[in-house]
Amino acid sequence: MDKVNAEPVISFKSADIINGESTVIYGMDMNVFPGDFVYIVGKVGTGKTSIIRTMIAENKLGKGSGVVCGYDLATITSKQIPMLRRNLGVVFQDFQLLMDRSVEDNLSFVLKATGWKDQEQISSRIMEVLTSVGMDKKAHKMPHQLSGGEQQRIAIARALLNKPKVIVADEPTGNLDSETADGIMSLLSSINKEGTAIVMVTHNKEIFENYPGRVMVCSNETCTEIQ
């Protein structure tokens, strides 16, 4: 990817990141370009998850500027937030699947909530994303019938539904054993190689050593890239 001419999908300049009422990171600069794999690492309580929450407009931006998928976080309206989130795929540590409905119904719920109407197109897109994460045989299963690794694959499929420019993942391997985590990282790497940018919070050093990417380190109320 020629990053000289590419527009970043996420850009922060001198940004203060807020959690609740308090600033947890001061003056952060970050550019994420199409096809980038960026890790955000650091100890517990250093603001990693707050960065993710700011990206998805769950937390307000403090000082400075932040633009995500073309939306200005300083001026974004509540009506624009769902539109921003259609351009983002979000993967959480605890999967956040709806336990009272099947895998297929979990994914259908997201598509309908983001404006899809045609049932045939919905079914077709669901099978596409399930196939891409190796879960096409599990569409009719309930989440409790799946292992942790399988649930996380479904969560990644859900994140892919609207063909996002970027996936933000908050400790997506945090609840998984190392072998299952390895499978999830291989999957995220293959999605990344197809051009989707990935921003991933992790505290697991082994992961970013085994799956190289750019690394941003949070410490002492800053978040800076290590070369």
How would you describe what is shown here?
The chain is an alpha/beta fold. It is built from seven helices and ten strands. It has helices at 48-55, 81-86, 103-113, 119-132, 148-160, 178-193, 205-210, and strands spanning 10-19, 22-32, 37-42, 65-68, 71-72, 88-91, 166-170, 197-201, 214-219, 222-226. The strands form two sheets. The chain has a six-stranded mixed sheet, sandwiched between helices. A four-stranded antiparallel sheet has the order 2-1-4-5, with helices on one face. A hairpin with a 2-residue loop joins strand 4 (65-68) and strand 5. Helix 4 crosses helix 5 and helix 5 (148-160) packs parallel to helix 6 (178-193). The protein is globular, with a radius of gyration of 17 Å.
Structural class label: alpha/beta
Q: How do the strands of the widest beta sheet line up side by side?
A: 6-7-8-3-9-10
Strand content: 25-35%
DSSP helical segment count:
7
Low-confidence residue ranges: none
Query: Helicity, in percent?
Result: 25-40%
Could you report the average pLDDT, rounded to the nearest whole number?
Answer: 92
Profile the largest sheet: 6 strands, mixed
* Whole-angstrom Rg: 17 Å
The strand count comes to 10
What is the N-to-C succession of helices and strands? EEEHEEHEHHHEHEHEE
Q: Could you give the distance between the termini?
A: 19 Å
Cα shape: globular
